[in-house]
Amino acid sequence: MADATPKKKKDFDLFDVFAVDVKAEEEGRWFLNVRPGLDLLVAREGNPTYQDRLGELIREEVGEDIDPGEAAPEAIHRASLRAVGERLLLGWRYQGEAVLPFLGESLEYSTENSVTIMTTPEMRDFANYVFRLARNAENFRKKRIEGEAKN
Length: 151
Prior knowledge:
Blueprint: H1 14-18, H2 22-27, E1 29-35, E2 38-42, H3 48-62, H4 73-88, E3 89-94, E4 99-102, E5 105-108, H5 111-119, H6 124-135, H7 142-150
Antiparallel strand pairs: 1-2, 2-3, 4-5
Helix pairs in contact: 3-4, 4-5, 4-6
């Protein structure tokens, strides 16, 4: 008769595959050299702080009486960009300095400066880039972050 005791697989652990760094999801993690010398501190899309703020911003854009699902796409887009600036892009560094060159100025990180960049129409590719970093679940896997910290 075959042994009914489950065998442990050494090459797979569900926790290792799917566990996320909950702190990094909300407080962000550094993405180094996204462009030469540029580091970004980005939180995960879908974290509770982001979701709550996105809901508030959508209600501000469309009013309390309109179902967000019925809101104009432009209003949702404006709210989304602001939410990314406020709750997902949480810091930056350029060549080790806590500033970001933008339109000839060196901007220190602030929520206001982050929102300004995210909502500048010509910066849509940057906004999309930040959102892709924030949306990619693999970027927030506990094992990946721990591995990067060791290097």
